Amino acid sequence: MPPSKVMEQENIAVGLDIGTTKIVAMIGRKNEFGKMEILGIGKSKSLGVHRGVVNNITQTIQSIQQAVQDAESSSGMTISDVVVGIAGQHIRSLQHSDYITRTNSDEVIHDEDIDRLCNQVHKLVMLPGEEIIHVLPQDFKVDGQAEIKEPIGMYGGRLEANFHVVVGQVSSIRNIGRCVKSSGLDLSGITLEPLASSNAVLSQEEKEAGVALIDIGGGTTDLAIFKDGIIRHTAVIPFGGNVITEDIKEGCSIIEKQAELLKIKFGSAWPGENKDNEIVSIPGLRGRDPKEISLKNLSKIIHARVVEIIEQVYLEIKNYGHEEQKKKLIAGIVLTGGGSQLRHLKQLVEYITGMDTRIGYPNEHLAGDSDSETTSPMYATAVGLVLTSLNEKNRKHSSAKLKETLPPVHESTTQEHKEEEMPEEQTVQPQSAQRGFFDKWADKFKEFLDNAE
What is the pLDDT of residues 184-241, one digit of tens each? Predict the structure, then answer.
């Protein structure tokens, strides 16, 4: 299948979302309008993952292969490399500020200076067994002049920056890499799942105004907070839809499969909604009498657990400093992930937090004719991973083109070029420095995996 292979390298990307309840492989490409078309999707039950962390390598490999085969057969393409999302209870984030002194302050600040500053942050001493996943610059200071969003092209001797650093467990990251490699795939990149989901469901206006994205998955609830277009806070809370199912199973003495169906079909996060006499009958096991369950009790069980999850998330939003005027999240909360489909969840979140809330569907960047199934909040992370990969390929491609077209010029003309570029680049730039480093990290990681064979 040579044609598909060529296409794949050019403008096609594959996202692999390794979740606690499902594994999704999604193939997508950018169409002529800059929107994303989904070419194929494969889904399998995730058996070897608990709370976002791989705990059974063999089963995870089988699930990945199953999802990839489904995606290949639905698209007629061969998948060779994937971008993987990482989440799990081991993820934590911290704020850090660092600086570099430039040797020649007569030259303008370049990408290399920001790379050097990011590399310095990567040398931070972590707890044993932890590794830095992302280094995200927040804002810069040049020679003491604060609150600079874009230092490239400016003069200065001392370059400082505040960073949002995301940290994860080395072993968990390597296990995911091992599963992908053993499934016969190349790992072209790793992205934090809340970042991927936010690419899929948030608009630029929301990121500017201030917004908290809550992605309620099966095993974990991911949080990403944006303000002024920059990510400010990330957190992973080790509870998700599965603990709600578990509670229903225990509370109603039924098996897991029935508990999951009950939650999806009749579940509600608001107990006042159901009348006392609303009852659902569940068939008994192996000829036993059917069980009768009151819907009011069911929603009470769900409500108790959902309140606990929301309160933990709200605590993280407060820790970020939402109550300070300057850090206020004007756009409120966006709920996404499979767990966000629970009835009356939006109302409950608004009631507990007092913040405007909407359900986030990943159709912000999708082509108009996309299948209604793929625009479900369940696929937000997968869509986000494909988008992240496509944007990255696009960025590499355009920077390579720019290098070819730019003649070797002296300082002043470079300056003019910078000024011409700035308007389009502004929104992308803060991430590009971090991406550049991240590519190197992914390469080192691949090298490690090859040596471990």
Answer: 999 988 888 988 999 999 999 999 999 999 999 998 999 999 999 888 898 889 889 9
Rounded to whole angstroms, what are the CA distances from 19 to 58, 90, 99, 162, 216?
15, 14, 37, 31, 11
In whole angstroms, give the CA distance from residue 19 to residue 54: 9
Q: Of all helices (H) and strands (E), which one includes residue 65?
A: helix 57-75
Helix (H, G, I), strand (E, B) or coil at 153: coil
Residue with tokens 């500053």, as numbered in its chain:
117
Low-confidence ranges of the chain (pLDDT < 70): 1-10, 399, 402-453
Looking at residue 238, what DSSP letter applies? S
Pull the structure tokens for residue 246. 């578990």
Burial, 425: exposed, middle or buried (Cβ in 10 Å; 0-12, 13-18, 19+)? middle
Contact call for residues 281 and 290 (beta carbons, < 8 A): yes
- pLDDT computed for residue 373 by the predictor: 73
In angstroms, the CA 421 to CA 417 distance is 6
Kindly report, as residue ranges, where domains of CATH 3.30.1490.110 are found in the chain: 92-171+411-452
The number of angstroms, rounded, from the C-alpha of 240 to the middle of its chain's C-alpha atoms is 15
Predicted TM-score (pTM) of this structure: 0.83
> Which pLDDT belongs to residue 3?
40
Torsion of CA 290, 294, 299, 305, to 10 degrees: -60
The hierarchical CATH code for the domain 92-171+411-452 is 3.30.1490.110
CA distance 177 to 267: 36
Q: Do the beta carbons of residue 350 and residue 343 sit within 8 Å?
A: no
